[in-house]
């Protein structure tokens, strides 16, 4: 499923922590990694180019060694331009299956950091994007970080849209590959139901519960997996962020555009908020666009 991945990196403790968290991706079939450092034109000025690029290459070699220790085949590349454009271009042209970027754990008042890299990559993604939440602890470069088991408990929020169905196909493959604990969740949006549809809430609840149970049964056919179902009522973003904390979710898998998607908008508001604020890592599956060739 994710045989070849691109990892967006830079010279920072956060990037090093992110690299230390990736050992578990082998369970998703990852074998090859491309470490990509993207420089802006001002960083390649001839007066500083040789010195700066030597430092960059040294950092890439250290990160490459960390990934090799985890069992991956690793290559490195330095390119010039905007990371949001370059990583998507390379992923499409060279048929990489996933893009990976790091983001620090933070409070709900925080923001996706990593120099804004995570936000930019997700905004323009044409391939799945994994945002890795890195733990706030010192990094041991010689062994993976124990507190970063991304696949320990997977949350799949769904609005039953076409994009959610696409994301569910990825979840199914993850269960087939050995994921052992999954929570399926649907949030009945209070802002939509309360004004005009309150009298039908019980009807909607019964229908949505049946849909969740059907997804649960489908996962049971794929592997030895524990599946919990959560049907909640309220603000989807707020309820999911609370659920992530309460259930100690390690990874959220979801479509990046749900029902009501407008192409010009960065993300559906729920996936946007989870990508931005969740304490768990987030795997976003983009909807297929009309101009996609893949």
From TrEMBL:
Name this polypeptide is given: Universal stress protein
Similarity annotation: Belongs to the universal stress protein A family.
Classification lineage: Bacteria, Bacillati, Bacillota, Clostridia, Eubacteriales
Xref: PROSITE patterns: PROKAR_LIPOPROTEIN (PS51257)
Pfam family, one: Usp
UniProt cross-references to SUPFAM superfamilies, sorted A to Z: Adenine nucleotide alpha hydrolases-like
Domain UspA span(s) in chain numbering: 53-133, 152-286
Organism in which the protein naturally occurs: Acetobacterium wieringae
CDD domains reported for this sequence: USP-like (cd00293)
Top-level taxon in the UniProt lineage: Bacteria
PANTHER family assigned to the protein according to its UniProt record, in alphabetical order: STRESS RESPONSE PROTEIN NHAX, UNIVERSAL STRESS PROTEIN MJ0577
